[in-house]
Amino acid sequence: MIERQPSSFTPGAPAAVPATFLPPAEKATDELPTPPPAPVEPAVQKHGSAPVSPPVSAPASAPAPAPAAVPAAVPAPVPAVVPAVSEAAARGYESGVDRPPASGSAPRQTADSVPQSRGESRGGAATESGKPAEAAAPVTSAADDAAPMPAAGRGVRSADPLDDEDRRRLLHGSHHDPHGLLGAHPVAGGVRFRVLRPYALGVAVAAKGLRAELLDEGDGLFGGVLPLRGIPEYELLVRYEDGELPVQDPYRFLPSLGELDLHLIGEGRHEQLWQALGARPMTHQGVTGTRFAVWAPNARGVRVAGGFNFWDGAGFPMRSLGATGIWELFVPGVGDGTAYKFEITHPDGTRRLKADPMARATELPPATASVVTSSHHTWGDQEWMQRRAAIPVHQAPFSVYEVHLTSWRPGLSYRELAEQLPTYVADLGFTHVELMPVAEHPFGGSWGYQVTSYYAPTSRLGTPDDFKHLIDALHRAGLGVIMDWVPAHFPKDDWALARFDGPPLYEHGDPSRAEHPDWGTLEFDLGRTEVRNFMVANAVYWCEEFHIDGLRVDAVASMLYLDYSREHGEWTPNEHGGRENLDAVAFLQEMNATVYRRCPGVVTIAEESTAWEGVTRSTDSGGLGFGLKWNMGWMHDSLEYVAKEPVHRKYHHHEMTFSMVYAYSENYVLPISHDEVVHGKRSLVSKMPGDWWQQRATHRAYLGFMWAHPGKQLLFMGQEFAQGAEWSHDHGPDWWLLDETYAAAADHRGVRDLVRDLNHTYSATPALWQSDTDPGGFAWIDGGAAEDNTFSFLRFDADGEPLVCVSNFSPVVRENYRIGVPDHAWQEVLNTDDARYGGSGTATGSTEHPLKAEPAAWHGQEQSIKLTLPPLATVWLRPA
Question: Which end of the chain is more exposed for a tag (fewer CB within 10 A), N or C?
Answer without folding.
Answer: N
